[in-house]
Amino acid sequence: MLSYRRLLHEYPTGARRRLLLAVVVLALFISAYEGQLAPILPLLLADLGLTLEAYGLITAVSLLFGAVSGYLGGELVDRIGRVRVLVPCMFLSAAACLFMALSQSVAHFVAARILLAFVEGVAMAGTQPLIRDFTPRMGRAQAFAFWSWGPVGANFFAAVLAALTLGLFDDSWRSQIFLMSGLAFAGATVVAFTLRDLSPELRRTIRLSERTTRESGAAATGPRLGPLLGHRVVWAHVAAMSLLYVLLATMNAYGQIMLVEHFAVTVRTASAIVMSFWISNLVASLVFSRLSDRAQNRKPFLVGGGLAAALLLGGLIATMSAGASASWFLVVVLLTGIGLSLGAVLGPWMASFSEYTEEIHPDAQGVAFGLNHFVSRLFILAAVLLAPRVVSATGWQTWMTVTLVAIAAFAVVVTQVQGGMRRAHGSPAAGETDVVVPTAEVPEDSPRS
Q1: Run of H or E including 407
Q2: What is the pLDDT of residues 243-257, one digit of tens each?
Q3: Which listed residue, of 174, 180, 230, 307, carries a Cα 20 to 30 Å from 203's Cα?
């Protein structure tokens, strides 16, 4: 019998727990890698006779399907089990890649793209709850920081693999999708034979360290979404991350073209500048997440990172007034600083959201992250669709001002999450173990200072 059908009745510790976390990140990496079409987009458009505008509409529709499936997947992983949903969906998404590679018409490609987006959304819904299941609070922000490396790493991997192998297959875009499907099947097999779910009883405990747990009380019955929606702090988390995605989606989809059009740099220089943004973001996410875990506090990193990003983004917008005569070195410094600032936010935000959710309902991690996935994807969709229209009418400086408003709103909204700006006196710091902690009550929505 495959291991994903069996349950863990003892909490994994040490190397075993780290292996399970690594496999979760692998599952996310594979799911994010599937459907990475940016490196082969010109070849694909030419072969299928698609315009960029038509492809943008296809992407928008697939985002909508992915948003809905992400929420539905969150419901499923809470009810059925994370791994029991993740593994079959990983095999289905690999098959969807194969279906896409065989596309002979636009209609066939559209159907494959939507199918892949839908199945991928369900598959990815199980990864964030699994990070929570296998990570005590003492290291949760760091674990989520590694989780965030999956999508970014998939972007780099797709670009590198295309550069190395396209020439071997006569520059056929289908070759990359076939490779994608093969790697996805291999990754799904590794996950199926390695990853296992925690038993429901074990999953319902709130773990502070590998050896220190706190009972979460009797398992709640009935709907999981309703109790979450009644808490203002849950909505503060969801709204904050959705606002943050306005800037992240802009940099992901239009970062290079913005630099080329507004600052008149070459495509190669623009790619290097955008890479500095993402690399600084990845490195900072690990550093600040570790600091957040050591302090066992999330809120100062959310507020501080948001304010720093807003100030630096304001500086970038002011620099944009100079147009092509602006110093590209200053642009690099500002974008790198923005990347660093946002890196202070990602891991602590996910840890904070996960911790608050498990206090309300220990079995609602999937629903909570599914809700966030759905709402944030709507914001991403709005950014991707609106940015070109705003830019064509008023220029990139106006759109970046829109992103500044979103980041400033993020800094305000995160003041409403739980906790104070300093670690509460007497709360356990990283490294403290064997602490006896009483059962917790459902958290209050009023923030503590």
Answers
A1: helix 396-413
A2: 999 999 888 878 888
A3: 230
Among residues 21, 239, 29, 228, the alpha carbon closest in space to that of 140 is found at 21
> Whole-angstrom Cα distance, residue 85 to residue 296?
32
Q: If DSSP codes are grouped into helix, strand and coil, which group holds residue 204?
A: coil
Enter the tokens of residue 190.
């590794």
Higher pLDDT, 397 or 295: 397
The rounded distance, in Å, linking the Cα atoms of 325 and 36 is: 35
**Mind listing the pLDDT tens digit for each residue in 53-107?**
788 888 889 989 988 998 899 888 888 888 999 999 999 999 999 999 999 899 9
Q: Backbone dihedral region of 196: left (phi > 0), alpha (psi from -120 to 50 degrees) or beta?
A: beta
- Residues 409, 175: contact at Cβ < 8 Å? no
CB 249 within 8 A of CB 383: yes
Residues with Cβ within 8 Å of residue 422, at least 6 apart in sequence: 297, 300
